[in-house]
# Entry
Amino acid sequence: MDKSYYKKVETAKFHINKDNLDMNKEFDKLRVYAEGQRPDWYGEDSLIENFERDMATFFYKEAGAFFISGTMAQQSMMRVYADKTHIKKVAYHPTCHMELHEMDALKELHGIHSVYLGNRKSLFTLDDLKLLTDVSCVVFELPQREIGGQAPSLEELKEMIFYLKQRGIKVHLDGARILEVLPFYNYRTKELFTLFDSIYMSFYKGLSGIAGAILVGSAEDVEAAKIWRKRYGGTLIHMYPYILSAKQAFIENKDKMGDYWKFSLEYAKILSTVKGLTIEPKTPICNMFHVHIDMDETSVHRALTKVIESYDISLFNKTMVGQNDGTTFTEVVIKDDYRHVPKLKLEYAVKLFNAELEKMRKNR
# Structure
């Protein structure tokens, strides 16, 4: 890790995609939502029960359960579907979170094996689904984070899910960032949410809560998932701090996603002027996109440092070595920080970034 670069990032006045959370301000917000409430006891009290019911209603489902992590929520539902269908196989995209970031938990803890749909670089399609043998569940992720936040159209989704339901296969939505793509789907929430048997959503990604997730579905399936929540140790003696944060984040931030998408399109357009920089997808469909730069990370950091020193703007948060040698990768996620960045200053900053990269190319 280039510590000197990241120290420089911390000094920037303006950030494109970094959560600058002030703990005192966050706790002040929670005090407002705590007014008149009492602590839950192992997740049982009107505070959490009312919130779970409200979230189920939002997603047009019978029931909801709050989990302290999305990892726990999704694994619990995969186990419920495996037990219900007597099929210990689930299908998902090769870059699914359960595949890449959970240390084979489905297989090691539940004996559930995964079947890949499509390839790592693009969305899976109906043709991919038609190649499936029997599985208990197919997992969709909207948006697909590891390929830049891509998503199929609502019509494509309907066609795929109709096919799966004809075969009696359960359909689960990894909707960690589902609110972020609602503008792309023109807020056709009922059409979208009712396609899925179950949905998981995170409260700390686009919504910027402290932690936690909601899992919604049929009353029977959610009740069964709650048993696994207990087995995972997921019912803490008091869960109200997470519930209050989730409630505050949902109420105050859920309607910002249209602005975030607009900002994302604006920033992607500005970045597209940089030579050797590629945006994935070319036209973002939500507040997320990936950036690939045909220069090594050290050179990119030097150029970004020059931008911070000249304009007090950090164009990217974290970067990493790209898939090909001598390239750099970063993920852009636009939220409230972008509102405060002077746009003319940003355009000059990106021009300087481009000029610095060009200078280094000539000196190779």
About this structure: The first strand starts at residue 14 and ends at 15. The chain has 14 helices and 13 strands. The two ends are 23 Å apart (CA to CA). The CA atoms of residues 42 and 238 lie 6 Å apart.
